[in-house]
User: Which sequence fits this backbone?
């Protein structure tokens, strides 16, 4: 096996609007706590190739990823589309780079220049191939994530920072970190990846500094311990998992950030120390387009009536632009108008995404552009044929939540549909009928194909 790595700073200029936590918060950056990085990992095994580009960003749209992949393939035509993996860590302390409504505006200059940076990043990685051995390891990581759908979100700071803190719903969080370690013949570490499912939201809507949140800080620390190594965070099933510190004032968040990053670094360090060699005879890769069934569609007159209802809220006596309800009414108007245009162009519109898979010996990466709930991941990994399956989110796009069936049933019963209705809407998608079953089945079909 040979690998090559490269990295570049993709931090925008100060003042660019940041991602998440809308509606219309106008959360503009005021400084840089640590640079946002993009990293590339090129792999070659017996003529099989794979390129992974990972960005410390909240998410990227599919069209953007296509543009980057096309630019790379112009110079490396032997790289098939399924062998170019572009993914994000999902930090909420970076710029807006995906197509949500009201959850931060994309900066046109930044998003125009970024593809060129990533294309050059990928090409440089191929120019630096060197022989390595791959190892796989894992270690406990029980003191970072909590399932916000099944336990109290945002516990008091002194509770979350207690060294003995643990999730009360460990079956619905990641409780271990999994790593790949790439070691040179002289024993030095050339690169490593760390796979873990958790929203990087130690710093939230009240924080305005650019940084990659706890995963980036942890891996930067470990890179110093392994000089010359590139550390890449692979985001897992984090749809319903927050960090234990979340939604705190800026000063408290920044203080906690170092603590949570240190916790993650300890777990990754242990996993790297425990890693055992894995034979990798080749690299198998699959990608396919999958369509999800919507819970319902809308007639044009229904959408018009819904838009009129939301506009009435906007113009109601006492409505203020700083109120959450007013902002959400505006988000809903814009989202419904977007959906009306989509359905006018295609009355049978469905959400269609690329799912993929990569197999490296006993290790398998199943990739999606979704924020997957832990229950779906648990179901997939329990049934997968691969010995070490990992389900990744935020790959080749950013298409919102993939809620599990329990959350959908609860939201429908309560009428509170943020996860199941609002998030699809702000991303211009229809609510799903049963994405849990359809996504799990599609990923397991890819797993079966990779393990024939």
Assistant:
């Amino acid at each position: 096996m040979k690998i090559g790595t490269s990295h570049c700073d993709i931090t925008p200029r100060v003042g660019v609007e940041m991602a998440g936590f809308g509606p219309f918060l106008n959360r503009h950056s005021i400084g840089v706590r640590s640079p946002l990085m993009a990293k590339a990992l090129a792999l070659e095994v017996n003529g099989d190739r794979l390129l992974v580009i990972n960005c410390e960003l909240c998410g990227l749209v599919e069209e953007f990823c296509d543009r980057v992949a096309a630019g790379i393939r112009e110079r490396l035509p032997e790289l098939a589309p399924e062998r170019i993996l572009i993914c994000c860590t999902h930090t909420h302390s970076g710029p807006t780079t995906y197509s949500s409504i009201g959850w931060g505006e994309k900066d046109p200059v930044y998003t125009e220049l970024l593809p060129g940076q990533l294309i050059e990043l990928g090409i440089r990685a191929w120019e630096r191939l060197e022989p390595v051995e791959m190892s796989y390891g894992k270690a406990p990581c029980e003191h970072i994530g909590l399932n916000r759908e099944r336990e109290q979100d945002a516990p008091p700071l002194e509770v979350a920072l207690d060294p003995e803190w643990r999730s009360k719903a460990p079956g619905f969080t990641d409780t271990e970190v999994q790593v790949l370690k790439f070691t040179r013949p002289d024993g030095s570490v050339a690169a490593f990846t760390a796979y873990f499912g958790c929203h990087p939201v130690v710093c939230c809507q009240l924080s305005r500094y650019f940084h990659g949140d706890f995963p980036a800080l942890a891996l930067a620390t470990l890179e110093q311990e392994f000089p010359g190594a590139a550390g890449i965070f692979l985001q897992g099933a984090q749809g319903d998992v927050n960090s234990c510190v979340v939604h705190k004032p800026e000063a408290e968040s920044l203080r906690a950030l170092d603590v949570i990053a240190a916790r993650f670094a300890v777990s990754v360090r242990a996993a790297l120390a425990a890693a055992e060699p894995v034979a990798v005879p080749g690299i198998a890769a699959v990608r396919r387009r999958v369509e999800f069934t919507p819970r319902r569609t809308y007639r044009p007159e229904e959408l018009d009536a819904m838009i009129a209802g939301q506009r009435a809220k906007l113009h109601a006596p006492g409505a203020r632009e700083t109120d959450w309800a007013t902002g959400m009414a505006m988000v809903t108007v814009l989202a419904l108008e977007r959906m009306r245009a989509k359905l006018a162009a295609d009355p049978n519109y469905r959400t269609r995404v690329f799912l993929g898979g990569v197999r490296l010996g006993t290790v398998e990466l199943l990739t999606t552009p979704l924020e997957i709930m832990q229950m779906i991941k648990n179901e997939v990994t329990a049934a997968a044929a691969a010995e070490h399956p990992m389900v990744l989110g935020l790959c080749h796009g950013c298409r919102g939540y993939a809620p599990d069936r329990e959350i959908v049933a609860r939201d429908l019963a309560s009428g509170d549909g943020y996860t199941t209705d609002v998030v699809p809407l702000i991303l211009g998608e229809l609510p799903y009928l049963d994405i849990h079953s359809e996504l799990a089945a599609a990923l397991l079909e890819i797993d079966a194909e990779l393990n024939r």
Summary: The longest strand covers residues 283-292.
